[in-house]
Amino acid sequence: MPLKLREGDPAPEFRLPRDGGGEISLADFKGRKLVLYFYPKADTPGCTREAQAFSAAKAAFAKAGADVLGVSADSVKKQDGFVKKHALTIPLASDETHGMLEAYGVWGEKSMYGKTFMGITRATFLIGPDGRIARIWPSVKVDGHADEVLAAAKAI
């Protein structure tokens, strides 16, 4: 599914419930770099490896002036369990209504094993301190991805 946003576009605003309670929004990161990564389903093998890699690199991202936020359509309760089970250190937001997922172009028709269904494309957006999209990874392969995003965050 092709993404509709392009590098240089303003990042769409969002306000979502997050793990641990409360809400998180794009405005919370104003003036900082934000790695916004979308993942299909909490506590599945690929999503777990991706969340663990971003958690392990949290200090390096902070040193590069970047925050990391993971987003899926899972409930806050499911996100809380995912964070606790795997000792994740990055915030996770829940978009059960798919509004933000649609705004970023990552919610749509997918197919696997001959079945078609609606779901999330694993994609990552690097948002610059100016609130514009600096880099997009439209179809992520998990292994080595966090390191690649960290290098891009350091470069802007």
From TrEMBL:
The active site is at residue 47. It comes from the Bacteria. Gene3D superfamilies: Glutaredoxin (3.40.30.10). Pfam families: AhpC-TSA. One of its GO terms (molecular function) is thioredoxin peroxidase activity. Residues 5-156 form the Thioredoxin domain. GO terms for biological process: cell redox homeostasis; cellular response to oxidative stress. One of its GO terms (cellular component) is cytoplasm. Its EC number is 1.11.1.24. Keywords: Antioxidant, Disulfide bond, Oxidoreductase, Peroxidase, Redox-active center. PROSITE patterns: THIOREDOXIN_2. It catalyses: a hydroperoxide + [thioredoxin]-dithiol = an alcohol + [thioredoxin]-disulfide + H2O. CDD domains: PRX_BCP. Thiol-specific peroxidase that catalyzes the reduction of hydrogen peroxide and organic hydroperoxides to water and alcohols, respectively. Plays a role in cell protection against oxidative stress by detoxifying peroxides and as sensor of hydrogen peroxide-mediated signaling events. Monomer. PANTHER family: AHPC_TSA FAMILY PROTEIN, THIOREDOXIN-DEPENDENT PEROXIDE REDUCTASE. Belongs to the peroxiredoxin family. BCP/PrxQ subfamily. This is thioredoxin-dependent peroxiredoxin. It comes from Rhodoplanes roseus. The lineage of its organism: Bacteria, Pseudomonadati, Pseudomonadota, Alphaproteobacteria, Hyphomicrobiales.
